[in-house]
Design brief:
By secondary structure, this protein is an all-alpha fold. It has seven helices and no strands. α1 packs antiparallel against α3, α3 runs antiparallel to α4 and α6 runs antiparallel to α7. The protein is globular and about 85 Å long.
């Protein structure tokens, strides 16, 4: 049963998505007020190290909270066919990665400007590991999307293909493949013959 097409579910998802958009917009506005009013602004190509550093929290928030959140919600907010939704989802995650690169580069540029050592705090190590795992997840998702017929394959079909490559017992694999192909069909009723 496909619950996505039920009006109640769509309404609930829309209300939650609207609330998430409001919180995201509020966080973006408050961060801009903080950076522009209290920290003097932000400029990536400035001679002032503080203005360069201010790009770091802005781009990290914009990339990994706002755009990444939009990518996650794309399955509920983009009203299009499944393939278009997947492409929008993947593209938004790519934009988030690009903004993360700019944000991390701003932090490194700030460290160079004030002659500070890179990667000296727990925040920087957790941030780099998180960014690398995020990029790796995107890359693996892209490979899965490309190699399973542009996202048309189901998880069960991917499992069967992996099992075909790793299993030497063809009969077990054939049974699994046959089961996964017949998932959408109604089960046949057993005919009981009286004796």
């Amino acid at each position: 049963m496909d619950t996505v097409n039920r009006p109640g579910f769509r309404h609930t998802a829309s209300a939650i998505a609207a609330l998430a958009h409001i919180f995201g917009l509020t966080a973006c506005i408050l961060t801009l007020v903080w950076l522009l009013h209290y920290r003097g602004g932000l400029a990536y190509d400035s001679r002032s190290a503080d203005l360069v550093f201010n790009c770091h929290p802005f781009f990290m928030l914009l990339g990994f909270v706002i755009v990444s959140g939009e990518a996650i919600m794309a399955y509920k907010t983009v009203r299009a066919d499944k393939m278009t939704t997947k492409i929008v989802h993947m593209a938004l995650h790519f934009v988030a990665i690009c903004m993360g690169i700019v944000g991390i580069n701003a932090a490194f540029k700030f460290h160079d400007m004030i002659k500070l050592e890179h990667m000296f705090s727990l925040h920087s190590w957790i941030g780099i590991v998180t960014f690398c795992l995020y990029g790796l997840q995107w890359l693996l998702g892209l490979c899965t999307f490309l190699f399973t017929g542009k996202g048309s394959g189901t998880t069960k079909q991917v499992e069967v293909e992996v099992e075909l490559q790793n299993n030497s017992q063809g009969d077990v694999v054939a049974d699994t493949q046959e089961t996964s192909e017949n998932v959408d069909e109604e089960p046949e009723a057993e005919q009981v013959t009286p004796e």
